[in-house]
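User: Could you walk me through two proteins back to back? I'd like the raw sequence and the C-alpha cells for each, with a short line separating them so I can tell where one ends and the next begins.

Assistant: Of course. Protein one, sequence then structure:
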Amino acid sequence: MSTVAYEIVDVFTDRPFAGNPLAVVFGAEALAGDQMQTLAREFNLSETVFVLPSAAGATYRARIFTPETELPFAGHPSVGAAVTSVRRGLAKPGQLTQECGAGMLPITVITDAATLTGGKPTLGPPLPATEMLELVGLREEDFAGTPAVAGCGLEFVILPVRREALARAWADPERARALGVTGISVVAWEEREKTAYVRVFCPGVSVPEDPATGSAALGLGVWLVGQGWLPGEGTTAYTVHQGIEMHRPSLLECTVTARGGAATLGTVSGHVVAVASGRIAVPPFIG
C-alpha cells in the first residue's frame, strides 16, 4: 500500500492540545488535487496542508485544504508548515518563502515559532450591521462598530461586538449561504490593550468554528486601520485571543503597517507544537 508521511501539530499555542490542530503532509508530489481533498476529509481538521517542491524558486509550495475545498491561503497552515519543515530539516531557520495561491509569502522561522507576512491588504465597503448580527445569532444591542470584509490573501467579514456577546455567537449556515458569507470573524476589541477577543466561523468551507485563524487576524488589522481604531501611519502591534469558547485557547501576535490611513502590510506570529506523526494511505485517484 502506498503511503505518505504526516504530522499533526497545534498552531498558535506553546503547549499541546490547545491552539488550532493542523495536518501537515509530506512526500505528496504525485498526488492529484482530489486525492489531497480526500485526505483532508479523512483528517477532518479545519485545514490540512501539503508541503510540495516549488518550481518558482520558493522554499516550498503549499496547497491548503479544508474538508470541503482548497484555499489560496490560510494563516495557521502557513505557520505550521514552515515550523514543521524546519524541524524536519527540510529548510533552515530564518527567512523562508512559501508559494501558495495568494502568491509568494515570506515567513521567518525561529525555533518553534514563525512570523508570516500576509498578502496584499483588501478592505471592502461597510456591510449591513443588522444582517451580520442576525447571521451569528446576535442582536442590535450587541453592535459595537461597522462590519466590512477585510483580508490579506483570504477575506473575512469583520463584525465588532460587545465582549459579553461573544459567548452567545454562532453561525447559521443557511443564512450564511443566502448572504454569500463564507467566513465571519466576530470581534470584541479592547482599545487600551490593543487586544481582540475573537470567534471565527467558516460555514462556507465546512468549518463551523475555528480555534485560531491567522488569515482572519491579518484581516482584522486591515479593518482596524480602516476604522481609525489603529494608527493610519507606521507599524502597530496588536494581540488576538481566540478559541477560548472551544477550550482550545490560542494566541496570535500581529502587526499592521499603514500609510495614508490604509493598511499596506500585515504580519501574524505564533508558536507550533508537534503532537503526533505517522503515515497515511494514499487514496485512489478519482478524477
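----
Protein two, same layout:
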Amino acid sequence: MVQLRSIQVLRAIAALAVVFFHLSPSEWTLGAAGVDLFFVISGFIMGTVGLGDGPGRFMTKRIIRIVPLYWAVTFAMCAASLVPGLFSTFTFDLPRLFTSLFFIPSEDPEGKVWPLVVVGWTLNYEMFFYALFALGLWLGRPILASAVIIMGLAVAGWALQPQPTIPHFYMNQLLVEFVFGLLLSRAVFFKSAPLGSGLAIAGFAGLLSLGVGSDTPEWRILYWGLPALAIVAGFVAIERAGAFPAHALRPLEKLGDASYSLYLTHGIVLGIVGKVLGHGSASAILTALVACIVVAMLSYHIFERPVGQVLRGLLTGPATAKASA
C-alpha cells in the first residue's frame, strides 16, 4: 500500500491537537479540530487506496485496523476502574460495554453520546463511513454512492432535526468531512508546491481566524472542516510535487505511525498524570505530553503493529501483511 508521508505527519498533528485539547479544553479549543483533520484524512485515504477491495475484504481490513486496540483500551479502562480511587468518575455496565465495543451510539449517564472510551465517539462515525463505503463497493461506485448517502443524511438531519439518539447521531454534518476527503482523492491536479503551500497556510490561518465559531456547532464543517480540507490538500500537493520536507519532519512522521495509539491511550495517561501531578502547571503539562507520546509509541510497537500484522497475515498472507504494516 502506498503511504503518503505528508498524511502521516498530519495524523501526528491531528492526534497532538486532540491531546492538547484534553490537556486544557478552555485554552486549546482549536485542538478539537484534530478530529476534523482525521475525518478528511480518512475520506482521502479510503478514496485513494480503498477502491481495489471487495466490500467484505474492505470491511475486514478496517475492522483489523480499528477494533483490536480499541477493544484493548476499553477493557483496560474497565479493569482499571475496579482499582479503588484510580478512575473515580469512570463507571460501566454491560449494556454500555456492549454498545461501546460494537460502535453503537448511546447516551452515557450524563446524556452525552459517548462510549466508555470517550474519544471513541469518532470511531462510531468512522465505522459508519466504512460501512457506507463498503456498500458503495458492492454497488460498484464507492465514492459516488457513499458521498450521495452522506450528503442526503446531512440534509435530512438539517431539515428534520431528529431527536432519537441514533438518527440524530448519523445525520450529523460532521459526516460531510469524509466527503471532503473523498472528493480530494479524485483531485489529481494537486501537484504544485506553491499551490500546496498556499492551501496549507490558508487552512491553518482559517482555523485560527474562524475558530471563534466553535460555539456554533452547526457551522463546524465551515470553520473547521473546510480549513482541514485545505490543509490536507496542501500537504498532499506539496508531496506530490516532490517538495515535502520529509527528513525534517521525520519525528512527526514516526509519531503519525502511532497516532491511533496516541489518540486512544492519551485519556488514560492524562488521568493518571493528573492525579499524580495535578493540572495546569507547565511541568504537569510537559510531563503529561511526554508520557502520552511514550505510552503511544509503546502501544504501537508492542500491541498495535504486531497484532495488526498477525491478523493481516491471516487475511492476506505473511509477506503481504508485513509489507502493508
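Residues 319-325 have pLDDT under 50 and may be disordered.

Let me know if you want the two compared in more detail.
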